[in-house]
Design brief:
By secondary structure, the protein is mainly alpha-helical. It contains ten helices and no strands. Mean pLDDT is about 85; it is low at about 210-223. This is TetR family transcriptional regulator.
Length: about 220
């Protein structure tokens, strides 16, 4: 996470630890949080209006890191080998989730939790990731047969799946993590194959067929 005032940083980190353990930001108490952070309780109000403000600030940090990272991965993969974009993007998403497990646990609980500002911030983050994903697929011409509206729908579905699948990923062992990442990559390719059925050019994102069943491999040869 970016460098910020030490007290603010300690409060955010402490809140994420406690909220992840309890599966809720709403249950945190000010004195408990200050004790976990090693600060005077009054310090909290120098940085945040309330717990919801802290939660939204923590989420903004995730957004500022995760979104440009995913875009960089997609563009680098497209430059190196367009057929690896889906694989590398899924791996990068899950690796970030594992490196920031507390934040993801809070997000997974918060998207249906009692704090409306946090719910809206999480949904806005997922929507932004999806919009950038669709834009990158379009600009990189990874699936030129699909119109932008279809790419938007596809990207929203994929991002939602990755976000919710991260719950299982965080609790899994190494072998299961590998399976979940492969499963996510397969889902992306199957969705693109379905969306592009009958189209003359599926594009690079749908044509890496090593992990696809025989019928899907045949469909991928349309490109």
């Amino acid at each position: 996470m970016e460098d910020i005032a030490d007290g603010k940083r300690r409060l955010i980190d402490a809140a994420l630890r406690l909220a992840a353990a309890r599966r809720s930001f709403a249950a945190l108490g000010l004195r408990e949080l200050a004790r976990e952070a090693g600060l005077n309780p009054n310090t909290f109000y120098r940085h945040f209006r309330d717990m919801e403000d802290l939660a939204v600030t923590a989420l903004a940090e995730v957004s500022d890191e995760l979104r440009p990272m995913l875009r960089a991965v997609r563009w680098a993969a497209a430059r190196d080998n367009p057929q690896e974009v889906a694989t590398r993007a899924c791996e990068a998403f899950f690796a970030y989730a594992r490196a920031h497990a507390d934040a993801f646990v809070v997000g997974l609980c918060g998207i249906t939790g009692p704090q409306p500002a946090l719910r809206e911030a999480i949904r806005a983050l997922l929507a932004a990731i999806a919009a950038e994903m669709a834009e990158d697929i379009e600009r990189l011409e990874l699936c030129p047969a699909l119109p932008r509206a279809a790419l938007d729908d596809f990207s929203r579905y994929v991002v939602s799946h990755l976000f919710h699948a991260s719950a299982d990923y965080l609790e899994a062992g190494a072998a299961e993590r590998k399976r979940l990442a492969l499963q996510a990559t397969q889902l992306i390719r199957w969705l693109l194959l379905g969306a592009s059925a009958g189209a003359p050019n599926l594009g690079a994102l749908a044509t890496s067929t090593a992990a696809l069943p025989r019928t899907a491999k045949a469909a991928a040869k349309l490109s």
